[in-house]
Write a structure and sequence with these properties.
single chain; globular; Rossmann fold; nucleotide binding; 9 helices; 15 strands; 322 residues; alpha/beta
Amino acid sequence: MASSVEESPPDAEEQQQLRNRHYNAQIIRRVDAHENLAIFRVRPDAPIPSFQAGQYVALGLGYWESRIQPSQAETVPAKKLRKLVRRAYSISCPMLDDKNQLAACDDVDYLEFYITLVREAGEPDGKPPALTPRLFQLGEGDRLRVESNIVGRYVLEGVQPDDTLLLIATGTGEAPHNAMAARLLRDGHRGPILMATTGRYIGDFAYREIHQELMRRYSNFRSLNFTTREPQNVDPEHPQYVGKQYIQELFQSGHLAELCGTDLSPKNTHVFLCGNPAMIGYMPPGAPPPKSPGMLQILQQVGFVHNDEPPTAGHIRFEKYW
């Protein structure tokens, strides 16, 4: 599955020259949850600009860099051989520092990213993934590009100290919620902070132990993980069989509110949705309605709103991945 190119790629000396020209940050730590999921801590050469929890930034690597195998075969056009591929990633948060103390994003001198390795396109004729097969070849000490602009509107605007926050995600969509939760806890938020994340397997929750520790320390913080492919999800004979756990069904049944231990009412709850568009239920203009309702539709049915007004309790915010 090695890459092929339309003309000779830069040799080793030129590759290093390109890195020196374009790269401006270093990986200082990599933690692998499993072979396709990792946390990367990246320290830019320049001071990190001020940003809000929930925002994102683009990472870049040269098309000349090698790609992890196995991954979908890639043909690099000649015009890209000496250019960068860039992708935007939400900034996550360590939540606990090296001394096991609460740490928000602006308490550390690095940026943390929670990233899934995508080895091949999801569609038969889709383009080969360009960034993550290269990124997952890197380790501590390796360099890459971090763009200077940290942006995004998926932030905590309008949240009051006693409001409830419901942070719903799929997979690595949890990243901005880690940043939000750490910021709120550090700033003394009094209302419930509720994280609900779905994944295929329990090993897909890289922050699970950190969240459990935070739940022991903060009575208003709760993190719930739901799976869809563990034995108890797919084997009706399993003694703890629960079926596939999708957040839409958990919310509609009232079970999510029970597990959260609080009323999830638009009167006092802000909802944040991040991850799979099917979970969110996002419909671009002119698109047909989703085959099954996403959280946007379900929440709107019970009084939550999504509009361009300044956000208050009862407002839905979302950030869709891919």
